[in-house]
Write a structure and sequence with these properties.
The complex is a heterodimer of chains A (1049) and B (502). Chain A has 1049 residues and is mainly beta. Chain A is built from nine helices and 53 strands. The longest helix of chain A is centred in the first third of the chain and has 17 residues, at 2-18. Chain A is globular and about 95 Å long. Chain A starts with a helix and ends with a strand. In chain B, the strands form four sheets. Chain B has a two-stranded antiparallel ribbon with strand order 2-6. Chain B starts with a helix and ends in a 20-residue tail after the last helix. The chains are: A mainly beta (1049), B mainly alpha (502). Chains A and B meet through strand 27, strand 29, strand 33, strand 35 and strand 36 of A and helix 1, helix 2, strand 1, helix 3 and helix 6 of B. Strand 33 of chain A pairs antiparallel with strand 1 of chain B.
């Protein structure tokens, strides 16, 4: 890597030597009104020699004598080329890019469209905005940048963000968008979070090198995505890769960053009371003493620590004291480093770009590491005047090691987060002589678990495509592309003998090994015929196309237990082998589509589209899915030029309507029998072979040959307005989107013999508003301040479930869980609440040991909803001379979360608020009753029973109902911040570099969560499934601070 | 150039012409068609599940309610502690309901259908007995449940709920039909080693199934004792007087399912101990009752506490966090070795933490010879044939023998506790209390006995969330949500099953 870098340096040095024959050209570049334009790039055509103009628009360029042409380019202005001839002074004016020269956007299948005539918005994120803060996973880079897109971090190490565009589009499946790279869909699976065992995975977008991305376009509505067929129903993320430039010499761009990853927030602990027993839910005789030191207790309800001597878990005398850092010592600083080198260039016919990225990232817990290598190549060539070919190839290797997550005993933070305050976790031994663990609790010791419950995985991935474009004549061309995404995934989990959690294999203490192999092969191809012709005032363009895709995956997993040799991490070391499980999925679709645009005088444009899919997952005879779309746009300032004035620069109106049809997932048309087994929800299970026998059972999920496609129908209106010299731009959209005939496994009475029946049954309706506001409050010679703000609001209501079905539980536990309920917002959180009377007053117990404490409802009720009311992203950009400062504020209003961590921290007496009021009298024995719930008895009379801290916070107190730990996740955070220093040209003129940039960046630098103490509310136990609302023993969220160096030469 | 285009077009034309075949791939290669499921493998899975679930959720719920087991913890409040204070919620029974209906009863129905089609009456007989066994547990636990419209898959996703009494009538008819099938002469397919209950050659195992059928029928008939004593006695009398009828005659006849000393093949009660550390302990009520009679089964039922002593200490609902109790022992968990206590004498359930290493190769007992004797003893007290005390002592002997108690110790115990005297209620109390101890680890029957007879006289736990001891389980939330013919949820857990008249 380093050698290569120096090789490039010396090559450039040689090049500079050879070009030593120079001359000087000066000039001034002005706008149409004669004012100088700062920052215009002046480049000798066909070289990398160039400067930028100063604040007054003047430049001075040392150009080789061989230079013939200069290219002037600047943001918001049209490029201009000038012949040098013999002139020593070349001054010119540039024409502002008015809306007549609007940008070209690639919509679908490489179809290029004039953005101005589009009937829907296509927000685009540039490479710079994506990579400034050096996210290692591009899904994290989308956060807060686009209106209509909601992202939520999944927590844990190296995981990505779940992306939700314009609400939920599937009843029980994923509403994640389709990722398309250079016109070819790629897989973004994975990202699952361990709820009950195992580790969190990365979503597969992590394999992409962010530095390979030129830009990223988000297609949101049905009208925009309909050509992508069924997979585009949830929106499309179009990624365009960086390509070489024509007639450019070998350009090298080098990007190196290093960042420190630290824990964002750790709880504020109390350090006053020792490990000891809670009595709150227990029948204690009145004489019983609370606050007795108990080395078996997971709670910190023990006596006040005053140095008294106790016998500890190890049987040794110990003077009681607090270990304030016993939890924070578990975590450490991690880091991530990314290096990318890209070399690009081209002749007049062929361009290329080769890049290599190496990334290494660690987490704040040891035994977590991700390594990534990406090698990619872009080649494009005009073979003849008519034929051009393109190819893209990327080879990715991503490997990781990870620690356990979720609601399970091997997760180091399962109970580690509330380690008793007097337990010297850092200093205590945790290995016994045999290598097993020494720990007071029933779970795995956090350190022992990090050492001995291990997991690693590796993905080798190939993403590639080849394309050919043939121009028949000036108005007709054909475009063909064939792409592949091929992945091989393997994972290996190891539970050492004596692991109490057995996070990988549920080995029951006997130790175990689990191996998974997963192969994925997605092949896609499309062929389009594109025509464009002018008929008088009408400009007509049309596309006729065909798409075929074949997605295949196969996984094999084996889990073996009963290890013979401690520490030997191989499946051959196991003595009990379970029947391997095999899973196959194959889906094929053939689609044909047409797209016609007619625009009149470039102000009125009508776009009509239609697609027909034939899907393998529906029964023969009903495989055809047809769906249309139409979009209309009118540029009012072009239609009525008098509207245009000093204030109003442009105004456009848009309206569209679209439908996207989607077929069922694979294998839901038939009924099957499969290998059986027995299990309850607590871990005990029977696995075949059982005493040499196999057993089969009829699958509980019944198929249905009568499945029809489900449809997402959407209409949208929007407008684009530019004001005050484009210093104010507004884009607003309102849409209504409806899922009808939603396909899912409808739960039926198990007494029918099955537990679910796949059906077309549900409906979801989403209404949403999105706003994008661009502002340039200050624009002066040296200083510019610009603001880009976006506002996302949508609400997805479940308007229909299957007949007779009122509730579908999506995920969770007995209480709490996440549900679909007819008439409720998607993803309501249900759980037991506190019993209340008709007036809403809490009903308190009046007798017994639990007098004064609340009661839970026996059933579950709606407790909240995980969806925020709205989210806002605001990017402030300040440029002063060579400095640019970007600050992204991420604001989320509303959205509930059941926080198990918070519940655990409090009910175990570990956090500061549980020690706010003294727990014991001065004798350190008599418990004080400083707390009280406000409530009434069954007759409505007020109950005034003072209670102890451990009763108030404990299992029979606040914890008794899930309602007690529903927390509003509203936040304000500085999501991203980066300060970039771009060395001015005159400083680097004499160096071989075209550009030198230093940056300091940070992520999650500041968090204010109004109602959410101790931890980061951005946690989701349900991973990238788009469903939120539950947090179960999540590992801590992180903050990143680093620096970056970017060189081009 | 044109050649390339023609070539591409040709490829597409060829592709499209076989479009139909290209899309015909929607059959899961990793499963077999429902209609191809073989009868012998279906039966294996049914017997495995029957054994497993008899040691799972309902075993825990019923035996916690009956104060055989106690919930405990050293960390946060466990679910077992919630069950123990009768906080049994509608979603807690979702899983067991699905396992009974969608796994066991559904596959049993398919076996009955296949057996009829393949002329295999022995399979049909066995399946019908398993159906009666599993179904009566649903009635006893929930009351009215779906019966007449079940297992119709998509054609009836919301089967109606039938009256428990009608279901019992249907189940007894099922047993009678099964006995006809099992007594018939057939050369058709028969269960063999593939049945994990009464595994082995059917020519010898047939007798076991027949004895089980009659003993199960006896259990069902006895459940009517409170509802209609006279009818109950008359029907039991008719059954035991039937020519050629055979009941359990030895512990070897026990309806039980063996498990193995292999991870994920162990007894589910043992697995729960391993996977849910410190969630269950022997209950103070049971342990104290056995302490009072110096019961010689204690060394097999429980570990001593302190471990080096010969004392046995049970936990009670609401006890403070502690591990200082006896634990489940070999009778429930299989042979055990090792075990080093902490300084205060407690054992951990996990071998790695100094607990005893159990092999888990213990049977789950579902209907025992001991229970048969206690049933006959109780029936005899009511007036059915037989001498109550003889059966009573035979029940104790069967239970103690199964536990591993030596003959002299049995004799000593019977000498002290084996006589039946006093009022009917006193005699019934003795019988049911001994049956209660003998039924340690048996699913639900003790709860049923208590609901029928009021014995043993357990009292509501001090931290109860209900006003009395539960008399049935709530309907599963999943059933209420998905079955439009489901009745409204019960107002509380005090709703009674049909045979549990107030």
């Amino acid at each position: 890597m380093r050698k290569f870098f120096f090789l490039c340096l010396s090559l450039v040095a040689v090049f500079v030597q050879l070009s030593a024959q120079n001359r000087t050209i000066t000039g001034k570049i002005t706008d149409e009104k004669g004012a100088g334009i700062a920052g215009v790039s002046v480049l000798v055509k066909g070289s990398i020699v160039g400067v930028t103009t100063d604040a007054d628009g003047n430049y001075k360029l040392t150009a080789p004598t061989t230079a013939k042409t200069l290219i002037f380019s600047a943001l918001n202005f049209t490029d201009k080329e000038m012949n040098i001839g013999n002139s020593a002074n070349i001054s010119t004016s540039l024409t502002g890019k008015d809306d007549n020269l609007s940008e070209v956007v690639v919509t679908s299948f490489g179809i290029k469209r004039d953005a101005k005539t589009l009937g829907y918005s296509t927000p685009k994120i540039s490479a710079e905005d994506l990579t400034q803060v050096r996210n290692t996973n591009i899904t994290n880079a989308i956060v807060g940048k686009v209106a209509g897109v909601r992202t939520s971090g999944t927590g844990g190490s190296f995981s990505g963000s779940a992306i939700l565009i314009r609400g939920y589009t599937s009843m029980t499946g994923s509403s994640a968008p389709l990722f398309v790279l250079d016109g070819v869909p790629i897989d973004n699976g994975g990202g699952g979070v361990a709820l009950q065992g195992g580790v969190t995975n990365s979503n597969r977008a992590v394999d992409i090198n962010p530095d390979d991305i030129e830009d990223l376009t988000v297609l949101k509505g049905a009208a925009a995505t309909s050509l992508y067929g069924s997979r585009g129903a949830a929106g499309v993320i179009l990624i365009t890769t960086k390509k070489g430039k024509r007639k450019a010499k070998n350009n090298v761009d080098f990007n190196s960053s290093y960042a420190v990853v630290s824990v964002n927030r750790l709880p504020d602990y109390q350090n006053e009371y020792a490990q000891g027993t809670s009595s709150s839910s227990l029948t204690l005789p009145a004489t019983s003493t609370v606050g007795i030191y108990n080395f078996n207790a997971a709670t910190s309800w023990g006596p006040r620590m005053i140095g008294q001597t106790v016998t500890n878990f190890f049987g040794r005398p110990e003077a009681l004291r607090a270990y304030p850092n016993n939890v924070s010592d578990i975590v450490q600083n991690g880091f991530n480093r990314q290096n990318t080198i890209g070399i690009s260039g081209g002749t007049d016919k062929t361009t290329y770009r080769v890049s290599y990225n190496n990334t290494k990232e660690t987490y704040v817990l040891r035994a977590n590491e991700l390594n990534k290598n990406v090698l990619s190549l872009n080649l494009n060539s005009e073979v003849t005047d008519k034929l051009s070919v393109s190819s893209y190839l990327s080879i990715n290797n991503t490997s990781s090691i990870r620690s356990q997550q979720g609601n399970q005993l091997s997760n180091p933070f399962f109970r580690g987060l509330f380690t008793p305050r007097s337990y010297d976790l850092t200093g205590s031994p945790y290995y016994n002589a045999a290598g097993g663990q020494l720990y007071y609790g029933g779970e795995d010791n956090p350190y022992w678990s990090l050492d001995n419950v291990r997991y690693n995985d590796e993905v080798n991935r190939f993403i590639g495509n080849v394309g050919a474009r043939y121009k028949f004549n000036s108005w007709l061309n054909a475009d063909f592309k064939l792409g592949a995404d091929i992945q091989s995934f393997r994972s290996h989990g190891f539970d050492e003998i004596g692991s109490r959690g057995g996070g990988n294999t549920s080995a029951n203490g006997t130790g175990g090994v689990s191996d998974v192999r997963n192969n994925l092969r997605n092949i896609n191809s499309y062929l389009t015929l594109n025509a464009q012709k002018k008929f008088g005032n009408f400009n007509v363009s049309g596309t006729l196309g065909n798409e075929i895709f074949d997605n295949f995956s196969n996984s094999l997993s084996v889990r073996s237990t009963g290890l013979a040799i401690r520490g030997f991490d191989q499946i051959s070391n196991a003595t009990v082998h379970n029947a391997p499980s095999v899973g196959t999925g194959q889906v094929r679709t053939i689609g044909v589509f047409a797209d016609v645009v007619v625009d009149y005088k470039r102000w009125l444009s009508l776009n009509v589209k239609a697609r027909n899919d034939f899907a393998s997952t529906l029964a023969p005879g009903s495989q055809s899915i047809f769906y249309p779309a139409a979009a209309l746009s009118a540029s009012m300032t072009d239609a009525i030029p008098t509207l245009k004035n000093k204030v109003l620069n442009s105004w456009k109106l848009r309206a569209n309507y679209g439908v996207v049809g989607r077929a069922a997932p694979a294998y839901n048309t038939d009924n099957y029998a499969a290998l059986g087994g027995a299990a309850d929800g607590f871990g005990p299970n029977i696995t075949y072979p059982f005493n040499g026998l196999s057993g089969y059972t009829i699958s509980n999920a019944a198929g249905n040959p009568k499945l029809r496609p489900e449809f997402t129908t959407e209409w949208e209106i929007g407008t684009d307005i530019a004001l005050f010299d484009n210093r104010v731009t507004i884009q607003a959209n309102y849409y209504v989107r409806k899922l009808t005939d939603g396909l899912f496994g409808v739960p039926v009475s198990p007494a029918s013999g099955v537990t679910s029946l796949f059906q077309n049954a549900g409906e979801i309706e989403t209404k949403g508003t999105e706003l994008t506001l661009g502002l340039v409050p200050i624009k002066s010679r040296n200083f510019t301040w610009s603001i880009n703000a976006n506002y996302t609001q949508f609400r997805s209501m479940v308007t229909k479930l299957a007949p007779g079905v009122t509730v579908i539980t999506l995920a969770g536990f007995t209480t709490p869980n996440i549900r679909l309920v007819e008439g409720e917002e998607y993803g309501a959180i249900f759980g037991n609440a506190y019993q209340r009377d008709a007036q809403g007053r809490m009903i308190l117990q009046t007798t017994g040991v639990n007098a004064g404490l609340p009661l839970p409802t026996s059933g579950v009720v709606k407790l909240g909803n995980s969806n925020p009311r709205y989210t806002v992203g605001i990017t402030n950009t300040f440029s002063y001379k060579m400095f640019t400062l970007d600050v992204l504020f991420d604001i989320r209003e509303g959205g509930d979360l059941y926080s198990r961590n918070l519940a655990d921290l409090r009910r175990n007496g570990a956090v500061i608020e549980t020690a706010e009021l003294a727990r014991f009298d001065k004798d350190n024995v008599t418990p004080l009753r400083n707390y009280q719930f406000t409530g009434v008895d069954a007759t409505g009379a007020a109950v005034n029973v003072p209670i102890r801290a451990d009763q108030y916070w404990g299992n029979a107190g606040k914890y008794v109902a899930a309602e007690g730990f529903m927390v509003n996740t509203s936040w304000f955070r500085v999501r991203e911040m980066n300060l970039t220093m771009k060395l001015p040209k005159n400083l680097i003129d004499k160096t071989p570099f075209g550009n030198i940039e230093f940056g300091v960046f940070g992520r999650n630098l500041f968090l204010k969560a109004r109602d959410y103490p101790h931890l980061d509310p951005e946690q989701n136990a349900l991973g990238s499934s788009n469903i939120g609302g539950l947090e179960f023993n999540a590992n801590p969220a992180t903050r990143t601070l680093g620096f970056n160096l970017r060189l081009t030469f | 150039m044109k050649k390339i285009l023609i070539a591409i077009s040709l490829v597409f034309l060829i592709g499209l012409s076989s479009c139909k075949k290209y899309l015909d791939i929607n059959k899961d290669p990793d499963r077999i068609a429902e209609t191809s499921a073989p009868i012998d493998l279906l039966l294996t899975n049914v017997t495995v599940n029957t054994g497993f679930h008899s040691g799972s959720d309902l075993n825990r719920y019923s035996n916690i309610i009956m104060q055989q087991y106690s919930g405990q913890t050293t960390g946060g409040e466990t679910q077992t502690q919630q069950y123990e204070k009768y906080l049994l919620q509608s979603a807690d029974v979702n899983n067991m309901w699905s396992a009974f209906y969608a796994v066991m009863l559904n596959d049993i129905e398919i076996i009955i259908r296949l057996a009829t089609a393949q002329n295999a009456p022995y399979y049909r007989g066995v399946a019908k007995l398993l159906k009666a066994y599993n179904y009566h547990h649903l009635v006893d636990a929930f009351g009215n449940v779906p019966f007449s419209e079940t297992q119709q898959t998509g054609s009836n996703p919301s089967p109606k709920f039938d009256n428990g009494a009608a279901i019992y009538t249907g189940l007894i008819a099922n047993i009678d039909e099964a006995l006809v099938d099992l007594n018939s002469v057939s050369t058709g397919l028969a269960p063999g080693n593939n049945s994990t209950i009464y595994s082995g050659n059917f020519t010898t195992r047939r007798a076991n199934w027949i004895r089980f059928g009659n003993t199960l029928k006896l259990r069902l008939l006895l459940h009517y004792s409170k509802l209609n004593r006279a009818d109950c006695v008359a029907r039991i009398t008719a059954l035991v007087n039937l020519t050629g009828v055979t009941f359990f005659a030895a512990n070897a006849d026990n309806f039980e399912m063996p498990f193995f000393s292999v991870t994920d093949r162990q007894n589910p009660i043992d697995q729960f101990e391993m996977r849910r550390t410190n969630n269950l302990f022997p209950n103070k009520f049971l342990v104290d009752a056995m302490n009072a009679t110096a019961d010689p089964r204690r060394p097999f039922y429980f570990t001593p506490f302190p471990f080096t002593s010969t004392n046995y200490v049970g936990a009670a609902s609401g006890d403070p966090q502690s591990q200082n109790y006896s634990r489940f022992h070999t009778f429930l968990r299989g042979n055990g070795t090792g075990g080093t206590p902490t300084p205060n004498g407690a054992l951990n359930p996990l071998p790695a933490q100094g607990g005893i290493l159990y092999d888990g190769a213990q049977v789950v007992r579902m209907l025992t010879f001991a229970e048969y004797n206690f049933m006959r003893a109780e029936a005899a007290v009511y007036g059915a044939p037989g001498v109550a005390e003889t059966f009573f002592q035979a029940g104790i002997t069967a239970s103690m023998t199964a536990a591993g108690v030596s003959a002299p110790n049995i004799a000593t115990y019977i000498a002290a506790n084996g006589t039946l005297t006093g009022t009917e209620a006193q005699r019934i109390n003795r019988i049911i209390s001994e049956k209660f101890v003998a039924s340690y680890g048996v699913m639900q029957e003790s709860w049923t006995d208590w609901r029928r007879t009021g014995f043993p006289s357990i009292v509501r736990v001090s931290n109860a969330v209900t006003t009395a001891i539960p008399r049935s389980l709530p309907y599963p939330q999943s059933e209420i949500d998905a079955n439009r013919n489901a009745p409204p949820q019960k107002p509380d857990l005090l709703v009674r099953t049909f045979w549990d008249t107030p």
